[in-house]
Write a structure and sequence with these properties.
This protein has about 400 residues and is mainly beta. It folds into 3 domains: about 180 residues, no CATH class; about 80 residues, no CATH class; about 110 residues, Immunoglobulin-like, CATH 2.60.40.4350. The protein is about 15% helix and about 40% strand. The chain contains 8 helices and 27 strands. The strands form 6 sheets. Strands 1, 3, 4, 8, 10, 13, 14, 15, 16 and 17 form a 10-stranded antiparallel beta sheet that branches. Strands 19-20-25-18-27-26 form a 6-stranded antiparallel beta sheet. Strands 5, 6, 7 and 9 form a 4-stranded antiparallel beta sheet that branches. A hairpin with a 2-residue loop joins strand 14 and strand 15.
Length: about 400
């Protein structure tokens, strides 16, 4: 199997919804992480190019490339001397609350799970869902050092064994949010090649280099290469772009240059023993790796059918909603604004004993689980599964 590795040469601007025009003081801000629509748009543009490198904008071509499916993007760490993936990084799961610990420099992680309240209190949670809570009530504050992206080994341990209370060092858990590079620009008068009075504007983009801030304080500079990984597929599997094999090409705001490379690799597979434990327990956690679009906003259907099998939603841990819109180039008007369940959202599900849970799992692991088929093709709702201990 092959996947695309996208390594920004310049800071990547994944624009938010705020306007950015030729006005003095304008700012082009970026999202903390690119939406799947940014990556799938770049790949579909390349899928629609003719042999001369021009995009074929005919309705037939547009309809054809809209059928192609994205799985990703995922943050990856790359080897220093080669364009190979050293490890995947996953968004922090919403069922793990990271607190400051009494141990010097350490973080305390509390696991959240559906729990019944002692009678007589009740909740106003919709749809009869259970509240998601920690097993212990602790006075510690949520840590500002909590990593936004977890290392693959730490994330897989969380899938297999989500402990109610544990302590770890931040360096063993993951990395903080991607750093942002702010640049000040000026409008230039073409007649004199001098700056236009008052015409300053700013852009802010994502840097895909991790720096060890503690080592940097001692003038030791330790860095890691980061990039984006995505699988681009048709109904038969990995899709080969007919007129683009890689190289430098623009992506996102300001047409910043990215390095595109097709590598022989796979998206993450389930850790050993995970599927067997889920089938034996008849219940699981579904964790979003990319934002999902559901008709009910924050959650999938209560009776969630995948692979011809129905699972039943029992609880959900969902961070604050994200919002997505855009501009429809064909109709010349804004796209509808929609709310997304963000990456890291966790859904607790169960199957009845008579159902084939493996078929549901096979249709869900590293697959897009949004309600609408086109949203799935656009890369929204990439999901993995974890154990939900009894």
């Amino acid at each position: 199997m092959t996947i695309w590795i996208i390594e920004p040469r310049d800071p990547l601007i994944a624009r938010d919804g705020r306007p950015f025009g030729p006005d003095p003081g304008a700012r082009a801000s970026t999202l903390p992480f690119p939406m799947p629509s940014v990556i799938v748009g770049g790949l579909r543009h390349k899928a629609g190019m003719d042999p001369e490198g021009r995009f074929d904008g005919t309705p037939a071509t547009i309809e054809r490339i809209k059928q192609l499916t994205l799985r990703g993007p995922m943050l990856v760490e790359l080897d220093d001397g080669a364009d190979t993936v050293r490890q995947f990084l996953f968004p922090a799961p919403a069922d793990a609350v990271v607190l400051e610990s009494a141990t010097s420099g350490a973080l305390r992680i509390l696991g959240l799970a559906p729990r019944d309240l002692p009678a007589p209190p009740t909740t106003n949670l919709p749809d009869g869902l259970q509240p998601v809570m920690p097993a212990l009530r602790v006075p510690d504050k949520v840590s500002s050092r909590a990593p936004k992206f977890w290392y693959q080994t730490a994330f897989e341990r969380w899938l297999l064994n989500p402990q109610e209370d544990q302590t770890t060092m931040p360096d063993n858990l993951g990395i903080a949010a991607l750093e942002q590079d702010a640049r000040m620009h000026v409008s230039v008068l073409p007649e004199t090649q001098t700056a236009r009075e008052g015409a300053l504007f700013q852009t802010r983009g994502l840097e895909f280099i991790w720096r060890d801030q503690q080592a940097q304080q001692h003038e030791v500079f330790l860095t890691r290469r980061l990039g984006l990984a995505a699988s681009f597929e048709d109904e038969a599997g990995a899709y080969t772009l007919p007129h683009f094999s890689g190289g430098f090409a623009p992506l996102g705001g300001e047409r910043r240059l990215m390095g595109w490379k097709l590598v022989d690799a796979m998206l993450p597979t389930p850790p050993a023993g995970l599927i067997e434990r889920i089938i034996a327990d008849r219940r699981a956690r579904v964790i979003l790796v990319s934002p999902a679009i559901f008709k009910d906003g924050y959650r999938p259907p209560l009776a969630w059918t995948r692979g011809g099998v129905t699972a039943y939603l029992k609880a959900a841990a969902v961070p604050r909603a994200q919002v997505i819109s855009g501009w429809d180039l064909h109709q010349g008007k804004p796209k509808p604004t929609r709310r997304l369940a963000p990456a890291g959202s966790v859904y607790f599900i169960e199957w009845s004993d008579s159902l084939d849970a493996r078929a549901w799992i096979d249709a869900t692991w590293m697959r897009n689980v949004s309600d609408d088929v086109q949203d799935q093709r656009d890369g929204f709702g990439l999901a993995v599964l974890g154990v939900w201990p009894r």
